[in-house]
Amino acid sequence: xxxxxxxxxxxxxxxxxxxxxxxxxxxxxxxxxxxxxxxxxxxxxxxxxxxxxxxxxxxxxxxxxxxxxxxxxxxxxxxxxxxxxxxxxxxxxxxxxxxxxxxxxxxxxxxxxxxxxxxxxxxxxxxxxxxxxxxxxxxxxxxxxxxxxxxxxxxxxxxxxxxxxxxxxxxxxxxxxxxxxxxxxxxxxxxxxxxx
Length: 196
What we know:
By secondary structure, the protein is of the alpha/beta class. 38% of the residues lie in helices and 19% in strands.
């Protein structure tokens, strides 16, 4: 079961801890479609001295939706939660669109984050030279994140990724938790990733 931490300003953040309570802390950041729930993680970590903490970004799962000015704010937002969990020195894992959040944590806490692990991480797409490396077919979708409103992006994401799914499939944690609030968390995440 996941937990809720209430930040000093009253905002609720969902998180889930896997592995050993006294294990070395590793903080995980999920992808664009994501959740704090990851099937098989407990089995994967069985016997490994790791405490894996996955944090849901704003608008995902049971985390409150709110807007950040940029991804660099995220480490300061989750800092009270890390203190609550007695996480001082730790590693970070960024999966896909979670990569910029892992990089932000490492940049904000250089004396605390020892290692950064990225799985299929999103690049610095806010930089024109990086964006130019994407195929022409992908650029049309990517430009939407830069130019359109959150509501338009959320609607596009729902139609693109979720509208054709069966109701049974929509109950998978990473689908269900991404669709909360009409995909606004995903939309905000996508928009932030195209900002410096």
